[in-house]
Amino acid sequence: MENEYDIAIVGTGPAGLSAAINAKIRNKSIIVFGNKDLSSKLIKAPKINNYLGFYGITGKQLKESFEAHISNMKVNITEERVNAIYSVGNYFVLMVNNKCYEVKVVIIATGMEYTKPIKGEEEFLGRGVGYCATCDAQLYKDKVVTIIGYTKKDEEEANYVNEFASKLYYIPMYHSDYNLKSEIEIVKDKPIEISGQDKVNKLILKSSEILTDGVFVLKESVSPAQLVPGLITEGEHIKVNRDMSTNIKGCFAAGDCTGTPYQFMKAAGEGLVAALSAVSYIDSNSELY
Protein backbone atom coordinates (compact mmCIF):
# COMPACT_ATOMS: atom_id res chain seq x y z
CA MET A 1 0.00 0.00 0.00
CA GLU A 2 1.03 3.61 -0.50
CA ASN A 3 3.11 5.09 2.34
CA GLU A 4 3.85 1.63 3.82
CA TYR A 5 7.42 0.32 3.94
CA ASP A 6 9.52 -2.28 5.71
CA ILE A 7 12.13 0.18 6.95
CA ALA A 8 12.27 3.95 7.38
CA ILE A 9 15.72 5.50 7.64
CA VAL A 10 16.01 9.03 9.02
CA GLY A 11 19.25 10.68 7.98
CA THR A 12 21.43 10.80 4.87
CA GLY A 13 24.93 10.82 6.27
CA PRO A 14 27.24 7.78 6.02
CA ALA A 15 25.22 5.83 8.61
CA GLY A 16 21.85 6.40 6.96
CA LEU A 17 23.11 5.69 3.44
CA SER A 18 24.97 2.57 4.57
CA ALA A 19 21.79 1.32 6.23
CA ALA A 20 19.80 2.11 3.09
CA ILE A 21 21.97 0.21 0.63
CA ASN A 22 22.30 -2.83 2.90
CA ALA A 23 18.56 -2.99 3.55
CA LYS A 24 17.89 -2.69 -0.17
CA ILE A 25 20.40 -5.45 -0.98
CA ARG A 26 18.30 -7.68 1.28
CA ASN A 27 15.14 -6.88 -0.67
CA LYS A 28 13.41 -4.75 1.93
CA SER A 29 11.25 -1.82 0.90
CA ILE A 30 12.78 1.35 2.31
CA ILE A 31 12.12 5.06 2.54
CA VAL A 32 14.97 7.42 3.36
CA PHE A 33 14.32 10.87 4.81
CA GLY A 34 16.98 13.54 4.64
CA ASN A 35 18.84 16.04 2.54
CA LYS A 36 19.80 15.14 -1.03
CA ASP A 37 22.97 17.17 -0.53
CA LEU A 38 23.98 14.44 1.94
CA SER A 39 26.12 15.15 5.00
CA SER A 40 27.37 18.74 5.08
CA LYS A 41 30.37 17.52 7.08
CA LEU A 42 31.71 15.57 4.12
CA ILE A 43 32.59 18.49 1.88
CA LYS A 44 34.39 20.24 4.76
CA ALA A 45 37.03 17.51 5.03
CA PRO A 46 40.16 18.42 2.98
CA LYS A 47 41.62 14.89 3.27
CA ILE A 48 40.32 11.60 4.66
CA ASN A 49 42.97 8.99 5.45
CA ASN A 50 41.17 6.65 7.83
CA TYR A 51 38.38 5.42 5.51
CA LEU A 52 39.64 2.01 4.39
CA GLY A 53 40.23 1.81 0.65
CA PHE A 54 39.98 5.58 0.07
CA TYR A 55 43.37 6.92 1.17
CA GLY A 56 43.84 10.64 0.52
CA ILE A 57 40.32 11.17 -0.77
CA THR A 58 38.76 14.59 -0.19
CA GLY A 59 35.40 15.03 1.47
CA LYS A 60 33.97 16.28 -1.81
CA GLN A 61 35.18 13.16 -3.64
CA LEU A 62 33.77 10.86 -0.97
CA LYS A 63 30.43 12.66 -1.17
CA GLU A 64 30.41 12.15 -4.94
CA SER A 65 31.15 8.44 -4.43
CA PHE A 66 28.24 8.18 -2.01
CA GLU A 67 25.96 9.89 -4.53
CA ALA A 68 27.04 7.58 -7.35
CA HIS A 69 26.56 4.50 -5.16
CA ILE A 70 23.00 5.29 -4.07
CA SER A 71 22.11 6.43 -7.59
CA ASN A 72 23.27 3.14 -9.09
CA MET A 73 21.28 1.24 -6.47
CA LYS A 74 18.23 3.45 -7.06
CA VAL A 75 18.05 4.57 -3.44
CA ASN A 76 15.79 7.62 -3.43
CA ILE A 77 15.86 10.34 -0.79
CA THR A 78 12.65 11.94 0.43
CA GLU A 79 13.35 15.58 1.30
CA GLU A 80 10.63 15.98 3.90
CA ARG A 81 10.99 16.70 7.58
CA VAL A 82 10.05 13.91 9.98
CA ASN A 83 8.26 15.62 12.87
CA ALA A 84 7.57 12.63 15.10
CA ILE A 85 7.86 8.85 15.17
CA TYR A 86 5.40 6.82 17.22
CA SER A 87 5.60 3.16 18.14
CA VAL A 88 2.11 1.72 17.65
CA GLY A 89 1.89 -1.97 18.47
CA ASN A 90 3.98 -3.88 15.94
CA TYR A 91 4.74 -0.97 13.62
CA PHE A 92 5.73 2.70 13.60
CA VAL A 93 3.92 5.79 12.34
CA LEU A 94 6.03 8.65 11.03
CA MET A 95 4.42 12.08 10.99
CA VAL A 96 5.81 13.90 7.97
CA ASN A 97 4.27 17.31 7.28
CA ASN A 98 0.65 16.56 6.34
CA LYS A 99 1.23 12.85 5.66
CA CYS A 100 1.74 9.68 7.67
CA TYR A 101 3.98 6.74 6.83
CA GLU A 102 3.63 3.27 8.33
CA VAL A 103 6.75 1.11 8.66
CA LYS A 104 7.79 -2.07 10.42
CA VAL A 105 11.19 -0.81 11.56
CA VAL A 106 12.91 2.55 12.02
CA ILE A 107 16.61 3.37 11.83
CA ILE A 108 17.60 6.73 13.33
CA ALA A 109 20.75 8.18 11.77
CA THR A 110 20.29 11.88 12.36
CA GLY A 111 23.84 12.75 13.35
CA MET A 112 24.55 15.45 15.91
CA GLU A 113 23.52 18.59 14.03
CA TYR A 114 20.11 19.19 15.54
CA THR A 115 19.33 22.48 17.24
CA LYS A 116 19.07 22.57 21.01
CA PRO A 117 15.54 23.23 22.27
CA ILE A 118 14.42 26.69 23.32
CA LYS A 119 13.63 26.98 27.02
CA GLY A 120 10.04 25.79 27.49
CA GLU A 121 9.91 24.08 24.09
CA GLU A 122 9.89 20.52 25.42
CA GLU A 123 7.66 21.42 28.37
CA PHE A 124 4.89 22.80 26.13
CA LEU A 125 5.22 20.31 23.27
CA GLY A 126 1.64 19.39 22.34
CA ARG A 127 0.32 22.26 24.47
CA GLY A 128 0.95 25.10 22.06
CA VAL A 129 4.33 24.03 20.70
CA GLY A 130 4.54 22.03 17.49
CA TYR A 131 7.00 21.09 14.77
CA CYS A 132 4.65 20.78 11.79
CA ALA A 133 2.72 23.93 10.95
CA THR A 134 0.86 22.44 7.99
CA CYS A 135 -0.27 19.49 10.14
CA ASP A 136 -1.79 21.57 12.92
CA ALA A 137 -2.75 24.81 11.17
CA GLN A 138 -6.50 24.22 11.46
CA LEU A 139 -6.18 23.95 15.25
CA TYR A 140 -5.23 27.62 15.30
CA LYS A 141 -8.09 29.03 13.27
CA ASP A 142 -8.63 32.68 14.26
CA LYS A 143 -5.79 32.53 16.79
CA VAL A 144 -2.40 34.21 17.09
CA VAL A 145 0.43 32.04 15.82
CA THR A 146 4.21 32.47 15.86
CA ILE A 147 6.50 30.53 13.53
CA ILE A 148 10.24 30.22 14.10
CA GLY A 149 11.77 29.37 10.73
CA TYR A 150 15.28 28.02 10.21
CA THR A 151 15.34 27.76 6.40
CA LYS A 152 13.75 29.63 3.51
CA LYS A 153 11.44 26.72 2.69
CA ASP A 154 9.69 27.35 6.04
CA GLU A 155 8.13 30.44 4.46
CA GLU A 156 5.75 28.15 2.55
CA GLU A 157 4.40 26.77 5.82
CA ALA A 158 4.04 30.29 7.19
CA ASN A 159 2.01 31.41 4.18
CA TYR A 160 -0.24 28.37 4.57
CA VAL A 161 -0.84 28.87 8.30
CA ASN A 162 -1.60 32.54 7.66
CA GLU A 163 -4.81 31.45 5.93
CA PHE A 164 -6.12 30.20 9.28
CA ALA A 165 -4.55 32.46 11.91
CA SER A 166 -5.94 35.84 12.95
CA LYS A 167 -2.36 37.08 13.25
CA LEU A 168 0.93 35.46 12.25
CA TYR A 169 4.40 36.39 13.43
CA TYR A 170 7.40 34.98 11.57
CA ILE A 171 10.83 34.86 13.22
CA PRO A 172 13.53 34.00 10.66
CA MET A 173 16.70 32.39 12.04
CA TYR A 174 18.44 33.07 8.72
CA HIS A 175 19.14 36.04 6.44
CA SER A 176 17.33 36.28 3.12
CA ASP A 177 14.76 38.10 1.06
CA TYR A 178 11.48 36.83 2.49
CA ASN A 179 8.67 35.59 0.27
CA LEU A 180 5.88 36.04 2.80
CA LYS A 181 2.34 37.39 2.52
CA SER A 182 2.20 41.08 3.26
CA GLU A 183 0.09 40.71 6.41
CA ILE A 184 2.63 38.41 8.09
CA GLU A 185 4.72 40.34 10.59
CA ILE A 186 8.44 39.54 10.42
CA VAL A 187 10.19 39.80 13.78
CA LYS A 188 13.99 39.80 13.63
CA ASP A 189 14.82 38.90 17.21
CA LYS A 190 16.22 35.88 19.05
CA PRO A 191 13.76 33.50 20.80
CA ILE A 192 14.72 32.99 24.44
CA GLU A 193 11.81 31.23 26.14
CA ILE A 194 8.34 29.83 25.46
CA SER A 195 6.13 30.38 28.48
CA GLY A 196 2.58 29.84 29.69
CA GLN A 197 0.55 27.99 32.30
CA ASP A 198 -1.55 25.07 31.07
CA LYS A 199 -0.61 26.00 27.51
CA VAL A 200 1.54 28.50 25.64
CA ASN A 201 0.62 32.16 25.93
CA LYS A 202 3.90 33.99 25.34
CA LEU A 203 7.17 33.88 23.44
CA ILE A 204 9.95 35.82 25.12
CA LEU A 205 12.54 37.26 22.75
CA LYS A 206 15.86 38.92 23.47
CA SER A 207 14.45 42.41 22.95
CA SER A 208 10.68 41.95 23.07
CA GLU A 209 7.76 39.61 23.80
CA ILE A 210 4.97 38.18 21.68
CA LEU A 211 1.60 37.16 23.12
CA THR A 212 0.69 34.07 21.13
CA ASP A 213 -1.58 31.02 21.23
CA GLY A 214 0.92 28.73 19.54
CA VAL A 215 4.55 28.46 18.51
CA PHE A 216 5.78 26.31 15.64
CA VAL A 217 9.50 25.58 15.74
CA LEU A 218 10.38 24.49 12.20
CA LYS A 219 13.79 22.93 12.77
CA GLU A 220 15.57 20.82 10.19
CA SER A 221 15.82 18.12 12.85
CA VAL A 222 15.05 17.70 16.53
CA SER A 223 16.80 15.72 19.24
CA PRO A 224 16.18 11.95 19.21
CA ALA A 225 14.24 12.04 22.48
CA GLN A 226 11.86 14.61 20.98
CA LEU A 227 11.61 12.75 17.69
CA VAL A 228 10.79 9.35 19.21
CA PRO A 229 8.81 9.56 22.47
CA GLY A 230 10.10 7.07 25.04
CA LEU A 231 13.54 6.69 23.47
CA ILE A 232 16.27 6.36 26.11
CA THR A 233 19.27 8.61 25.65
CA GLU A 234 22.55 9.06 27.50
CA GLY A 235 23.26 12.76 27.44
CA GLU A 236 22.85 13.84 23.81
CA HIS A 237 23.30 10.32 22.42
CA ILE A 238 20.89 7.45 21.82
CA LYS A 239 21.58 4.44 24.02
CA VAL A 240 22.09 1.36 21.82
CA ASN A 241 23.18 -2.25 22.14
CA ARG A 242 25.87 -3.90 19.99
CA ASP A 243 23.25 -4.72 17.35
CA MET A 244 22.32 -1.00 17.30
CA SER A 245 18.92 -1.69 18.85
CA THR A 246 17.40 0.87 21.21
CA ASN A 247 15.06 0.35 24.15
CA ILE A 248 12.09 0.46 21.75
CA LYS A 249 11.48 -2.78 19.87
CA GLY A 250 11.99 -2.31 16.13
CA CYS A 251 13.84 0.98 16.55
CA PHE A 252 17.55 1.03 15.74
CA ALA A 253 20.11 3.85 15.62
CA ALA A 254 23.49 4.38 13.98
CA GLY A 255 26.18 6.99 13.45
CA ASP A 256 27.09 10.11 15.39
CA CYS A 257 23.74 10.12 17.21
CA THR A 258 24.85 6.99 19.12
CA GLY A 259 28.07 8.55 20.43
CA THR A 260 31.74 9.05 19.76
CA PRO A 261 33.97 8.68 17.85
CA TYR A 262 32.41 10.94 15.23
CA GLN A 263 34.05 9.25 12.25
CA PHE A 264 32.69 8.48 8.77
CA MET A 265 33.93 4.89 8.88
CA LYS A 266 32.38 4.19 12.28
CA ALA A 267 29.08 5.66 11.09
CA ALA A 268 29.03 3.56 7.91
CA GLY A 269 29.81 0.41 9.91
CA GLU A 270 27.02 1.09 12.37
CA GLY A 271 24.64 1.72 9.48
CA LEU A 272 25.46 -1.74 8.14
CA VAL A 273 24.89 -3.36 11.55
CA ALA A 274 21.62 -1.49 12.04
CA ALA A 275 20.35 -2.60 8.63
CA LEU A 276 21.25 -6.25 9.23
CA SER A 277 19.62 -6.13 12.65
CA ALA A 278 16.51 -4.48 11.22
CA VAL A 279 16.22 -7.12 8.49
CA SER A 280 16.67 -9.91 11.05
CA TYR A 281 14.03 -8.32 13.29
CA ILE A 282 11.49 -8.16 10.44
CA ASP A 283 12.19 -11.71 9.28
CA SER A 284 11.97 -13.17 12.79
CA ASN A 285 8.67 -11.37 13.45
CA SER A 286 7.03 -12.05 10.08
CA GLU A 287 3.94 -13.48 11.76
CA LEU A 288 3.17 -10.05 13.21
CA TYR A 289 2.86 -8.33 9.83
Structure description:
With 289 residues, the protein is of the alpha/beta class. It has 2 domains: 4-114 and 221-288, FAD/NAD(P)-binding domain, CATH 3.50.50; 129-218, FAD/NAD(P)-binding domain (3-Layer(bba) Sandwich). Helix content is 22%, strand content 27%. It has 6 helices and 17 strands. It has helices at 14-25, 59-72, 133-136, 154-161, 224-227, 264-284; strands spanning 4-10, 30-33, 77-78, 82-88, 91-96, 99-108, 129-130, 144-149, 167-172, 185-186, 191-196, 200-205, 209-211, 214-218, 233-234, 237-238, 251-253. Strands 1, 2, 3, 4, 5, 6 and 17 form a 7-stranded mixed beta sheet that branches. It has a 5-stranded parallel beta sheet with strand order 7-14-8-9-10, covered by helices on one side. A hairpin with a 3-residue loop joins β11 (191-196) and β12 (200-205). α1 packs parallel to α6 (264-284). This is NAD(P)/FAD-dependent oxidoreductase.
Task: Give the topology.
Blueprint: E1 4-10, H1 14-25, E2 30-33, H2 59-72, E3 77-78, E4 82-88, E5 91-96, E6 99-108, E7 129-130, H3 133-136, E8 144-149, H4 154-161, E9 167-172, E10 185-186, E11 191-196, E12 200-205, E13 209-211, E14 214-218, H5 224-227, E15 233-234, E16 237-238, E17 251-253, H6 264-284
Parallel strand pairs: 1-2, 1-6, 2-3, 6-17, 7-14, 8-9, 8-14, 9-10
Antiparallel strand pairs: 4-5, 5-6, 11-12, 12-13, 15-16
Helix pairs in contact: 1-6
